[in-house]
Amino acid sequence: MKDGLLWAPDKERQTHTLLAAFIRAVNQTHDTQLSGYDDLYAWSVRQSGDFWQQLWQFAGVIGDPGESVCDIDPEHPNRDSHWFPTARLNYAENLLKHAEQYADQPAMIFSGEHEVARTLTWRELVDQVAAIRHYLDMQGVQPGDVVAGYLPNLPETVIAMLATAALGAIWTSTSPDFGVDSVLDRFGQTEPKVLFTSDHYHYNGKTYDCLNKAQQVVDNVPAIERLVVIPFDGDRPSLPAGVDNWQDLLAKDAPPLRFTRVAFNAPLFVLYSSGTTGKPKCIIHSVGGILLNHLKEHQLHSDVRPGDRFFYFTTCGWMMWNWQVSALASGATLVLYDGSPFYPDAGVLWRLAEQHQLTLFGTAAKYLEALEKQGVTPKDDYSLASLRVLCSTGSVLAPEQFDYVYQKIKSDLQLSSIAGGTDICGCFVLGSPLSPVYRGESQKRGLALDVQVFNAQGQAVEEQKGELVCCNSFPNQPVGFWHDTDGSRYHNAYWNKIDDIWFHGDYVRLTAQGGMVFYGRSDAVLNPGGVRIGTAEIYRHVNQLSEIMDSVVIGQQWQNDVRVVLFVKLAAGVTLDESLKQAIKKTIRTQCTPRHVPAVIAEVSDIPRTKSGKLAELAVRDVVHGQDVAQLSALDNPASLDQYRQRPELTE
């Protein structure tokens, strides 16, 4: 391993990538001599309008692109410019454009904890989308109306979304593990007209009812006119009067599927922020922005092509669900899974990968860390010959997990540590099938995104830690926030630090290779004595200790300064004695930084995380300081915060 190099694509692999084909198309169309990713990136930022126009043609987008690529606002060219202002298209039409060509081939494969797969062909997918669109038409759903899913990660969830998009309406969703209050915080704002739910779902070997919670949502959101229930296991559920059964909707005659084309910047999805600092922000994403950006990220950054098998471990409450579904537009087969990734054992997703010959496997960084802790070696137990790309997101992927992937999963693999978020329903930093993978680094900045790192003085820097910013406009910027009539909440969320510059809130470093190293959220940076360090640097070393299952670190206000406090979840049978505390401190002192050795190390039985698996560092910090946590319902395990309140060792 030279200079951290873990993998590089061979020449033959590079030549046959869609990214290489795109570079050839750019050179031919624009009379350029681009060679390799870095050349293309520089051109795409310099000529971003030409880039997005070229992508529209290269990816075969169906629709009218209009006469203008971008209307540039002279006062705020980054924040307020509008892409493809006269274009007309339909998201569902583009996701289903391969259906006729691949009619009898799988469009979606679903498996759950019982590991019994069911397949839906492209022809069946189109027929079912047509039936549900017809139902929504009969309910009076029109462009601009909201349709919601309180659903597991089922094929029917994708169908309901596509039917909604086909008629130009807006889709929003959350997963069934969300409590009623959490759902009301979301759907109570967006006021859907129709709600889809499931009768139940399975997780970790247990069955959970959905109907009672869904009915409570209906009772408390007056805008909901109809409730539709999808049977998770196919058995016909017993439903109260006035509730519609999904199976009945499919049985009715429906006209052929039609698509209502809408403006490029018409709303498609409403996604929700985690809501840990107040009511969740309802982030509106556009039809064209989502489609174009996901085509870019799938085809150019991940080399997704027709016939691929595309899998991402996600729920419908995370933006990665929306991201994975768009792979249909590239002709890929979606492989969906709903349930625990460790039930009945840690091999369940790798059996899925082997059985269905996955080409892209997506997951969260924490999952890879957990596999390593458990000593799982997929390469020895499963055939992964078809797997080309492994994506990781949700939190920082530590360098040690890079090693784990190449040593224990597959050595010839594009490992893409991708990062962006719900805010853009996509990535600022992601992979490149033409470029090497270096240990601990995300491969490249996203094409046509002028991603830079700013220091505290607002200056662009390299090989220094700072704030991740984006210094140009891009099509998948949010349309805005729901009910944010004057745009102030949207402005304050991203644009209020330096005029017309998007501040994303990640603490990062741009490397000499053009990659990015992440150190955690900038609002959770530790700053004792004025020396800053990202929390991920602590987790990287502490979580590698065999005695530690998980941890969370915060800065506690203490004697006119800040001191570092580390909470640890221990492995079974381990005691947090003085010897272990000293071992943890030595690890941080020698492998991380002597300036950030914890002043206090305390044991907890659970680490609070959001529904999407992100560490709730700010919630812990608030509790430690005796402050209220604005939205406990945003957490997957809110009761865990009780362990952090009024700890005697935090007053000493």
Number of strands: 34
- Which descriptor suits the 3D outline? globular
Structural class: alpha/beta
Helix content: 25-40%
Radius of gyration: 24 Å
Q: What's the arrangement of strands in the largest beta sheet?
A: 14-13-10-8-9-16-17-29
Biggest sheet descriptor: 8 strands, mixed
State the distance separating the first and last CA atoms.
Answer: 46 Å
Instruction: Count the DSSP helices.
Output: 20
Q: Roughly what fraction of the amino acids lie in strands?
A: 15-25%
Give unreliable regions as ranges: none
* Nearest-integer average pLDDT: 94
Describe this structure in words.
This protein starts with a strand and ends in a 28-residue tail after the last helix. Helix 2 (18-30) crosses helix 4. The model has no long low-confidence stretch (mean pLDDT 94). It is an alpha/beta fold. It contains 20 helices and 34 strands.
